[in-house]
Amino acid sequence: MFVATDLNRQNDKIQQRWRILFMVMTLLLILPVLIILLLLIIRGGPMISWTFLFEFPEQGMTAGGIFPALLGTIFLVSVALIASVPLGIAAALYLSEYAGDNWLTRVINLAIINLAGVPSIVHALFGVGAFVIFFGFGTSILAASLTLAIMTLPVVIVATKESLQAVPQAFREACWSMGATRWQTIRRIVIPNAVSGILTGIILEVSRTAGETAPIMFTGAAFFLPFLPESVFDSTMALSLHLYVISTQVPGVPEALPYGVALLLIAIVLVMNAISIAFRVYLRGKKKW
Amino acid sequence: MVEPAVNTPGAQAASGNGRNVVEIKNLSISYSGQTALEGVNLTVREGEIFGIIGPAGSGKTSFLKAINRMDLFSTAMEVKGGIRFLGRDVKDWRNVYALRSRVGVVFPLPVGLPLSVYDNVALAPRLRGVKKKADLDIIVERCLQRAALWDEVKDRLDSLGSLLSGGQQQRLTIARSLSQDPDLLMLDEFSIAVDPVTTMRIEDVLKELRKEITIILVTNLVQQARRLADRTAFFLNGECVEIGETEALFTGTVKDQRTLDYIEGRFG
Question: Which residues between 81 and 100 in chain B have a beta carbon less than 8 angstroms from any beta carbon of chain A?
Answer without folding.
Answer: 97-100
